[in-house]
């Protein structure tokens, strides 16, 4: 028992020292190598391409590639030199994603909702922000650390309480971890990617004010949403307000680099 406790404490301590900083200066826990995360991203991307219908519309593919190329050109090194693969999926799903290893997917349902090239640039820039900030690594690291903490807690609680009491305490600890630790980190990731996406789209010549307009369009889609404290994303209005606030600082960058090279297919 003592050996197990010491092993868990050692794992937790190792997690505490594996800290880095995100592009916005926030402290992060990174326990996995970039190569490991990139391999997982490539595997996930291959699976999605097998499961989803890939769009064969040349105009839509050129449009998405055009916007993506603009964004990649202004990314910090080494991301701007990396080879990025872009796939348009023929689906009504209003979604896009970017995965470690330089993999980007955009669904045609999102292209319908994103009324302007700048609105689509906001989403793609946001998703690229997740990759550059290494949120996948941080997310996996946080979950691993939480798991170690739960195991350690289980060992300590089991020594002090009977089985029924221990089960109750561990259940409460699990809820506490989910609400107080894991979910808030997800909201932090979303907000951080919003900020990074604004930087990238403005530098690429896309009006950053369109990011808030995109989320106004998304809010019009309707549907029930959970309370913000139980969600992995900020509420739509919280997001709109923050994007509106942040876009002002990016306007000078946009004014210097503005262009209109990508046109949405009619």
Automatic annotation (TrEMBL):
Record's cofactor remark: Binds 1 zinc ion per subunit.
Peptidase M48 domain ranges (all copies): 59-245
Coiled coil: none
Pfam families documented for this protein: Peptidase_M48 (PF01435)
Any one of the GO BP annotations: proteolysis involved in protein catabolic process
Family: Belongs to the peptidase M48 family.
GO MF term list: metal ion binding; metalloendopeptidase activity
Name of the featured protein: M48 family peptidase
PROSITE patterns cross-referenced by the UniProt entry: PROKAR_LIPOPROTEIN (PS51257)
Any one cellular-component term (Gene Ontology): membrane
Superkingdom field: Bacteria
Cofactor(s), by name: Zn(2+)
UniProt entry keywords in alphabetical sequence: Hydrolase, Metal-binding, Metalloprotease, Protease, Zinc
């Amino acid at each position: 028992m003592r050996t197990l406790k010491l092993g868990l404490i050692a794992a937790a301590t190792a997690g505490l020292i594996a800290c880095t900083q995100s592009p916005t200066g926030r402290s992060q826990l990174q326990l996995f190598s970039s190569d490991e995360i990139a391999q997982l991203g490539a595997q996930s991307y291959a699976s999605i391409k097998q499961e989803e219908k890939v769009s064969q519309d040349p105009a839509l593919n050129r449009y998405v590639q055009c916007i993506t190329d603009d964004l990649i050109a202004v990314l910090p090194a080494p991301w701007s030199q990396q080879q990025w693969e872009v796939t348009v999926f023929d689906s009504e799903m209003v979604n896009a994603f970017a995965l470690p290893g330089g993999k980007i997917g955009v669904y045609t349902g999102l292209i319908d909702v994103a009324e302007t090239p700048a609105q689509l640039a906001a989403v793609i820039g946001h998703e690229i922000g997740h990759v550059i900030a290494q949120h996948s690594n941080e997310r996996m690291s946080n979950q691993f650390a939480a798991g170690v903490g739960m195991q350690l807690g289980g060992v300590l609680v089991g020594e002090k309480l009977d089985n029924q009491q221990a089960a109750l305490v561990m259940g409460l600890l699990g809820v506490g971890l989910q609400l107080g630790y894991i979910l808030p980190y997800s909201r932090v990731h979303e907000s951080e990617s919003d900020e990074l996406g604004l930087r990238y789209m403005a530098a690429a010549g896309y009006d950053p004010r369109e990011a808030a307009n995109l989320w106004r369009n998304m809010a019009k889609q309707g549907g029930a949403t959970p309370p913000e404290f139980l969600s992995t994303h900020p509420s739509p209005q919280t997001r709109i307000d923050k994007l509106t606030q942040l876009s002002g600082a990016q306007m000078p960058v946009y004014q210097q680099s503005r262009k209109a090279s990508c046109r949405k297919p009619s």
